């Protein structure tokens, strides 16, 4: 009986690994393929039999072409700049609003909160035309501002932070007021430190979304110098050098790597962050 | 605590709270004013503008426009490409949602079944979620390449003749759906794992007392019913996300061949920003917006009914 039981457990374990290796292969295959091609010379990419590791190592050449034919590092830098600016703006707008919605009493608070909830329903792509027109009127199209400003308000951020701010007991705020702390100091010295995990989660959500976004940059900018990574790799592909698979895959590796490395370093934070922001 | 405080607490409280109220009122509005201005300027104003645009013949760059009533909508509804885009989007959603949810659920159950290599599997399955879709779509494009692509090489190895996946009317949308599942199922997995962790152990103990201690019994009696709310949530999330499919279409097929993989958001993009037909684009936005809002609201209602069954 016991022998049979452990036999079945053994079979179960093997089956578990067998299936998970298969699904993990499905998830990882494009990454292996991308890295493999980025290291190969053209003849080897087109030859009949496939090896993961190139027989003639062509990696240096491919990555050199990718980096010189298109401003790859510039794309990454633009990505960092745009994502940082968006998140900073969002915090600046969301934190006071979320604090007021959670902890202050004022006329119109419930109406405002309903407006935020309605705002959550709106898919951002639906606002593309008016945003485009607005930026055009102010002559801001094809600038960094065009990439950043439409995202200054995040109803999602307001909603999420309000939920977390509410969980901080009122007594703490009363005590802080009795100690002579102003509202700004209460936000800065109590609310922000105590909800740091929520802020980090919101940050990860925001950065991942805007680093990977293609739709809006495609509309807002044309110039290569201010392209974000997702748009940059597309411009590179449609360029002359991007017609060759080796350099193109090298470019893809450069574009995809920063976020994936960040994820592998801080896995738990990323997974929990993205999960928290949806299961609110 | 001073004697004064204890003597007349009510008076002190009343005074403090009335002073605090008026102070809070001003402070409250000060704190929310940037958000309110931006809500109006960047969210609700633009929604109103879209509706307005949809009733005009305005084109980008032209200085004048006329109200033309519902002409844009009539053009839209008699345009076969619109209907093609709509039905393609629905087919895409109908493939991606069950694929993502099932695969995510199976992987989550297996990962949580025992601790072996748990961390590795979780990270491996989550990697596509983090990756930039436009770059990975380009990679998928080479994998689906008719001659040098990995997929046709593998099929050829098994003696099966491959297809030009992205250039064939029969397979283009399907290939995009597989890419959609690839990107999303790791996220579904993570949500299911957090759902699994929330199931209290005593339910399994109780089921064991009732004689349900086999893996399948536990799954049928405890795990799956308890995952109901999470499943509903994952379905909603995946549906709304796949309804917004754009990147892979733009990068890989451009909606082709002959509109076989045209979807709503890509149609909207081409009409508005390639052809600059803003009125038509705005009408399309209004329809798109209506569908998304309706979808979200019905699903939210469904969710409310289903979640509180206990």
Describe the structure.
Chain A has helices at residues 2-38, 42-46, 59-69, 72-103, 109-121, 128-137, 144-148, 155-166, 170-178, 183-194, 196-212, 215-220, 229-237, 245-265, 267-279. Chain A is mainly α and 280 residues long. In chain A, helix 4 crosses helix 11 and helix 5 packs across helix 8. Chain A is globular, with a radius of gyration of 24 Å. Chain B is mostly helical and 310 residues long. Chain B is 75% helix and 0% strand. Chain B starts with a helix and ends with a helix. Chains A and B meet through helix 1, helix 4, helix 5, helix 6 and helix 11 of A and helix 2, helix 4, helix 5, helix 6 and helix 8 of B.
The residue ranges of chain B in which pLDDT falls below 50 over 5 or more consecutive positions are: 1-16
Oligomer: heterodimer
* Biggest interface, CB < 8 A: A-B, 90 and 92 residues
What is the name of the CATH topology of the largest domain in chain B?
Answer: MetI-like fold
CATH topology of the largest domain in chain A: MetI-like fold
Counted up, domains of chain A total: 2
Q: Biggest β-sheet of chain B, characterized? A: none
Note the total helix count of chain B. Answer: 14
Q: Portion of residues in helices of chain B?
A: over 70%
For this structure, what is the CATH class of the largest domain in chain B? Answer: Mainly Alpha
The shape of chain B is: globular
The stretches of 5 or more residues of chain A where confidence is low (pLDDT under 50) are none
What is the alpha-carbon Rg of chain A in Å? 24 Å
């Amino acid at each position: 009986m016991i022998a049979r039981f452990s036999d079945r457990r053994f079979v179960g374990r093997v089956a578990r690994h067998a299936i998970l290796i298969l699904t993990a292969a499905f998830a990882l295959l494009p990454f292996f393929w991308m890295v493999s091609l980025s290291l190969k010379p053209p003849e080897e990419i087109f030859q009949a039999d496939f090896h993961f590791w190139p027989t003639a190592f062509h990696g240096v050449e491919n990555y050199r072409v990718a980096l010189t034919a298109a401003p790859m590092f510039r794309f990454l830098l633009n990505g960092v700049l745009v994502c940082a600016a968006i998140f900073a703006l969002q915090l600046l707008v969301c934190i006071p609003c979320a604090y007021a919605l959670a902890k202050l009493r004022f006329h119109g608070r419930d109406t405002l909160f309903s407006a935020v909830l309605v705002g959550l329903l709106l898919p951002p792509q639906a606002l593309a035309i008016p945003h485009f027109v607005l930026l055009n009127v102010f002559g801001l199209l094809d600038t960094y501002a065009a990439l950043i400003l439409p995202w200054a308000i995040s109803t999602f951020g307001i909603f999420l932070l309000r939920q977390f701010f509410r969980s901080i007991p009122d007594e703490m705020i009363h005590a802080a007021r009795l100690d002579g702390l102003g509202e700004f100091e209460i936000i800065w010295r109590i609310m922000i430190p105590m909800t740091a995990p929520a802020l980090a989660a919101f940050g990860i959500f925001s950065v991942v979304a805007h680093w990977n976004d293609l739709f809006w940059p495609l509309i807002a900018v044309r110039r290569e110098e201010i392209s974000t990574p997702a748009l940059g790799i597309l411009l590179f592909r449609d360029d002359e050098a991007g017609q060759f698979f080796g350099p193109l895959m090298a470019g893809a590796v450069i574009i995809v790597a920063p976020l994936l490395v960040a994820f592998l370093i801080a896995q738990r934070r990323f997974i929990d962050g993205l999960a928290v922001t949806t299961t609110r | 605590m001073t004697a004064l405080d204890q003597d007349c607490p009510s008076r002190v409280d009343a005074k403090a709270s009335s002073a605090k109220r008026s102070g809070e009122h001003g402070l409250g509005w000060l704190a929310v004013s940037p958000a309110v201005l931006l809500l109006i300027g960047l969210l609700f104003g633009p929604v109103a503008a879209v509706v307005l645009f949809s009733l005009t013949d305005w084109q980008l760059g032209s200085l004048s426009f006329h109200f033309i009533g519902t002409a844009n909508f009539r053009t839209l509804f008699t345009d076969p490409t619109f209907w093609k885009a709509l039905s393609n989007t629905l087919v895409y959603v109908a493939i991606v949602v069950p694929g993502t949810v099932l695969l995510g659920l199976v992987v989550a159950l297996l990962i949580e079944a025992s601790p072996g290599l748990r961390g590795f599997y979780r990270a491996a399955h989550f990697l596509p979620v983090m990756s930039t879709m436009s770059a990975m779509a380009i990679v998928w494009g080479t994998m689906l390449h008719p001659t040098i692509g990995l997929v046709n090489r593998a099929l050829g190895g098994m003696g099966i003749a491959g297809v030009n996946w992205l250039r064939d009317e029969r397979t283009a949308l399907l290939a995009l759906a597989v890419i959609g599942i690839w990107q999303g199922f790791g996220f579904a997995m993570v949500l299911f794992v957090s759902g699994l962790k929330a199931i209290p152990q005593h339910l399994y103990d109780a089921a064991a007392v009732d004689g349900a201690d086999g893996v399948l019994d536990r799954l049928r009696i405890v795990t799956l019913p308890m995952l109901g709310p999470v499943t509903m949530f994952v379905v909603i999330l995946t549906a709304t996300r796949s309804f917004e499919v754009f990147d892979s279409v733009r990068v890989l097929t451009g909606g082709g061949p002959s509109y076989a993989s045209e979807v709503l958001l890509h149609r909207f993009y081409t009409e508005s920003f390639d052809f600059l037909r803003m009125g038509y684009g705005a009408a399309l936005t209004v329809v798109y917006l209506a569908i998304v809002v309706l979808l979200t609201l019905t699903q939210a209602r469904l969710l409310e009914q289903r979640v509180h069954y206990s």
